[in-house]
TrEMBL record:
InterPro entries: L-lactate/malate_DH, Lactate/malate_DH_C, Lactate/malate_DH_N, Lactate_DH/Glyco_Ohase_4_C, Malate_DH_AS, Malate_DH_type2, NAD(P)-bd_dom_sf
Pfam families to which the protein is assigned, alphabetical: Ldh_1_C, Ldh_1_N
Protein name, entry field: Malate dehydrogenase
Family: Belongs to the LDH/MDH superfamily. MDH type 2 family.
UniProt: substrate binding residues: 93, 99, 132, 163
Source organism of the structure: Aeromicrobium alkaliterrae
Domain Lactate/malate dehydrogenase N-terminal: 6-148
Enzyme class: oxidoreductase
Boundaries of every Lactate/malate dehydrogenase C-terminal domain copy: 157-323
Name of encoding gene: mdh
EC number(s) reported in the record: 1.1.1.37
Reaction equation(s) it catalyzes: (S)-malate + NAD(+) = oxaloacetate + NADH + H(+)
Length: 329
């Protein structure tokens, strides 16, 4: 008997990220080669025609795992019974904007979608937020879905995590598979803190292998934290295929588990670990298994890390205060 199909909602499905994400999901990259998927795609009314074209292309791929595709513009219909909701749809920033500038424009979307998920999603739903500002959008959705446990919400910092791995690979030549225990702390913004003090490169402490704290502070951290802007400057549009790939990686590891000798970065509701204010959606090192996650505990935090972890938390507190004032949470 084939496994029960998983219902996956994707919002902003006609957008740039959607155009990569949907094909990867339907091809089995998220749930593996044995699990059929049913896609339930949300778009705003004016983008539905374009989405119809994307669905025609999905049909034309004849993906064996793709059981059905439904599209619509009403989240109360599209989210019906979904087991996984990937909230991508939101306005992207353009050159010169910070992601926080999108708070007001995109905040309202996540209020309505949080309410709809609360009303109609499956009991086991997991919700991953990619649309920016991702952490605070996840906070808004979570706050508007009081019946869904808080640990079912996360925001995407896996792209930052992958960017950090790639930069370390570029510096050392060690394959990314042999680089472990990198952490992105905090906000998916320029204040994020990519931390290598616990990382291992080829089984050795990363700081010893790199042996250049000046490079860590003045090249590695800003390169990872500002990579989104660099891509906008180069491409004239924000990252899309890499964002889709990270969205898949994050959901895959959340639902199916991550390696035990490594961890991943995920922005989740803080339980106060590492002194981060309770309830903020903050990126931590987490281990995942079977649809649940737990924050890696007891890492020693030096003064260099502490200052950066607190600065990115302070930005998230400001964002939370701003959306509270706007009445979104
Ligand atoms: N967390 C991360 O690492 C990353 C996040 N992003 C963010 O992802 C979001 C999407 O990016 P792109 O696909 O490039 O943008 P895009 O503009 O190409 O697509 C966004 C889509 O969302 C749709 N949309 C707008 N409001 C909607 C609503 N209420 N319900 C459903 N769909 C709605 C639009 O019609 C559009 O088709 C942006 O906020 C972007 O900043 C992008 C890259 C990385
Ligand atoms: O920078 C942006 O606006 C898009 C994004 O989140 C990223 O590439 O990390």
């Amino acid at each position: 008997m084939s496994p029960t199909p998983v219902k996956i909602a994707v919002t902003g499905a006609a957008g740039q990220i959607g155009y990569s994400l949907l094909f990867r999901i339907a091809g089995g990259d998220l749930l593996g080669p044995d699990t059929p998927v049913q896609l339930q795609l949300l778009e705003i009314e004016p983008a539905l025609k374009s989405l119809e074209g994307v669905v025609m292309e999905l049909d034309d791929c004849a993906f064996p795992l793709l059981e059905s595709v439904e599209i619509g513009s009403d989240p109360n219909v599209v989210f019906e019974g979904v087991n996984l909701a990937l909230l991508v749809g939101a306005r992207p920033r353009s050159a010169g904007m910070e992601r926080g500038d999108l708070l007001e424009a995109n905040g309202a979307i996540f209020t309505a979608q949080g309410k709809a998920l609360n009303a109609v999603a499956a009991d086991d739903v997991r919700i991953g937020v990619t649309g920016n500002p991702a952490n605070t959008n996840a906070l808004i959705a979570m706050s508007n879905a009081p019946d869904i446990p808080r640990d079912r919400f996360s925001a995407l910092t896996r792209l930052d995590h992958n960017r950090a791995l790639s930069q370390l690979h570029g510096r050392t030549g060690v394959p990314v598979a042999d680089i472990r225990k990198v952490t992105i702390w905090g906000n998916h913004s320029a204040t994020q803190y990519p931390d290598i003090f616990h990382a291992e490169i080829d089984g050795r402490p990363a700081v010893d292998v790199i042996d250049d704290l000046e490079w860590v502070e003045n090249t590695f951290i800003p390169t990872v934290a500002k990579r989104g802007s660099a891509i906008i400057d180069a491409r004239g549009a924000s990252s899309a295929a890499s964002a889709a790939s990270a969205t898949i990686d994050a959901a895959h590891d959340w639902l199916l588990g991550s390696q035990t000798d490594d961890w991943v970065s995920m922005a989740v509701a803080s339980d106060g670990s590492y002194g981060i204010p309770e309830g903020l959606i903050y990126s931590f090192p987490v281990r995942t298994s079977d649809g649940s996650w737990s924050i890696v505990q007891d890492l020693e935090i030096n003064d260099f890390s502490r200052a950066r972890m607190d600065a990115t938390a302070a930005e998230l507190v400001e964002e939370r205060d701003a959306v509270t004032k706007l009445g979104l949470i």
